[in-house]
Design goal:
GO terms for molecular function: electron transfer activity; heme binding; iron ion binding. The chain has 148 residues and is mainly alpha-helical. It is 71% helix and 0% strand.
Length: 148
């Protein structure tokens, strides 16, 4: 009897934990995956500039290119209507022009970072401002459109 109850409890727990998952093929799941990749890449670049990671010119330049490519992808995964599980504010859909402007600002800042990282030899001090612009572009959009 106890084993049966424990099994039933475990199955209920597994069922409930599966309910909160986001379909990775849904627009929300695709956006989340892209934003996570962007965050990881950006953290590596910032980590190299701030001394948390050793500075590697090749890895930094490759990371800048990757971040630039990623920065152009999530926007296509915002559907016309807000999803229930989204952590985006309703304003994403209500203020689409502003949202698009901030997306373009991010793309411009990552493109500038790629250009700066093409100037060899790379100097961490020269890359600090372009990385800062990327981080500020991310933050600006989050402050206006993301629910925390």
């Amino acid at each position: 009897m106890i084993a049966r109850n424990l099994l039933l409890l475990a199955l209920c727990g597994l069922t409930l934990s599966a309910c909160d998952r986001v379909d990775p093929n849904s627009p929300l799941g695709q956006r989340q995956a892209l934003f996570k990749q962007m965050l990881n890449t950006s953290e590596d670049l910032g980590g190299m500039l701030r001394g948390r990671l050793s500075f590697d010119e090749k890895r930094f330049a490759e990371g800048a290119v990757k971040l630039d490519q990623l920065s152009r992808q999530p926007w296509q995964h915002f559907p016309q209507v807000r999803e229930e599980n989204s952590s985006a504010r309703d304003e994403v859909w209500q203020r689409q022009e502003r949202f698009d402007q901030l997306a373009r600002d991010l793309e411009a800042s990552t493109a500038a970072l790629v250009a700066a990282s093409a100037q060899t030899p790379l100097k961490a001090k020269a890359l600090a401002a372009p990385v800062d612009r990327v981080e500020k572009a991310c933050k600006a959009c989050h402050e206006e459109f993301r629910v925390y």
